[in-house]
Amino acid sequence: MEKVNLLKNSFKTCNIDAYLVPSYDEFQNEYSPECLQRLKWLTNFSGSNGLALITKDKNYLFTDGRYLIQAKNQLSDDYLIFNMQDADDIFNKIFSIVSFNFSVGYDPFIFSKGALENFSKLYIRDLTNIKLVPLEGNLIDAIWDRDKNFKTKAPLILDAKYTSETETQKISKLIDKLKADYILITSPESICWLLNIRGNDLKYTPLIMAYCIISKQGDIEIFSDLKKIKSSYPSIKLLPFKDIKCRFLELDNQNKTIQLDHSQTPIWFIDNFQKNNLVIDKNPCILPKSIKNNIEVAGIKYATIQDGIALTKLFSWLEVQINAGEEVTEIDIDKKLSYFKKQNSLFKSKSFETISSFGKNSAIIHYNPYDGYNSKVGTDNLFLLDCGSQYEFGTTDVTRTLCFGAASTPQKLHYTLVLKGLIHLSTLIFPQNTSGSQIDALARQFLWKYFLDYPHGTGHGVGHYLSVHEGPQGINKYNHQELKNNMIITIEPGYYIPEKYGIRIENIVLVKAVDNDKGFLQFETLTLAPIAYNLINTELLIAHEKKWLLSYHQKVNNSLSPFLDDIEKKYLERHLQFYGNLT
Questions:
Q1: I need a surface site. Which of 399, 426, 442, 570 has the fewest CB within 10 A?
Q2: pLDDT tens column, 119-147
């Protein structure tokens, strides 16, 4: 609270009554470099989606259902914690009771226009006495003394054998669609994808923290703290990140038109440019980046095989250790998994911090064993492992729930309902123009019959050696992006009982055309890892679900067995035999 009080001390000077601190940074990243994690520094909340509203006498934190338990564990009692989806509750408890002119300060170099409009729509609404006030400079930066420079090496130039398309080809396509003299791109993911480069500024996501301006003539200016960018593209100029504002204002003085995406770009750029010279349009990199070409799809398929090998080795080892009564902790499992993955020289890093969680910890959706809990894994509860990898040829994300003892009747019921949701959505055939919002309920329907649900989306896009969470596609009730051929997405239903256990099963799938002329799509499951059979209530499975499980494990066995030792092969064979007996 000393940090919070320091922040509040600046309110009078700035003439504000409150201040907004988001979890994201000036690059709009889900995950930020440590030196830009302002919300974590201020509050101790480490979730990837959070927003603090600090007023003179109250402290509020908004987050989504994935992080509510985590927020309660990490924050002191001085905070009121809200599910940000409960807009009415937040509005009534905070803003509807304000009877005087109330000014909320924010950093316009972090918040986008879209984010502010959404905040106003959900929480402030039509209250004319609530004002959002842009401030010069960031109030957290004024009280947080640290080095903000990125001490990183030059980025990797991704080999064309992994991308199939050169940066010259991508830039040419972008320029053809350009609607202004210049385009400003503030998304590091888009910049890395466009230029076929991968960086080191984040621990698990291979990005460079940069902005980019591209002219209609193909001249590229990159604003970053990197010393050099080697590229086959001829017209790249590297400038310090601090120069972006001056360069932007220079273009304005020259009366140039500039295109930008208001949902991603800090509102400072919109407020400081002549309105008639702004062209507001979607980032032209987003959709092409999400639709993988055949080489990228092949790379991701190969990546899932590598992950499947490591996971099968881990599960086989873990079963032997626990059956022998050896002590194994959540962190031990993460380290052993890393050991198996590093046997492959092509493994680059994790794609996010491994969620290795036992018992009540597994109910914390984005649990981190390194935060101080690190429980011993035993036979008296469930173990949930959510992990992913980065390879130059692809990114992975997979979740499995295991039990090393005798599962209870409720545990088997809940696990089977989650599994049925996974299978039902995985086998869906659907027409073109279908969005994730239209099919989200299909994975939840079996839980709903028991008046149960889970507080997160059913799936998210996955990048190609980029972010493990990639848009615009997703499977949740809010995502209206059409699913398109060659998009990569996850299917991951779950169920969680706080202080008891959590269940999630997650596979990566490929959106692909059905082999006919009807214009329909389907999912091809790419993840290759055994699904626990001792948690299933087989009486709840129907014929096509049993058939899917057998077919899936035949593919897992055929794909992974050549790379396993005899004990590991027998581990897979037991799964195959169980599912074979079901049919």
A1: 570
A2: 999 899 888 899 999 999 999 999 999 88
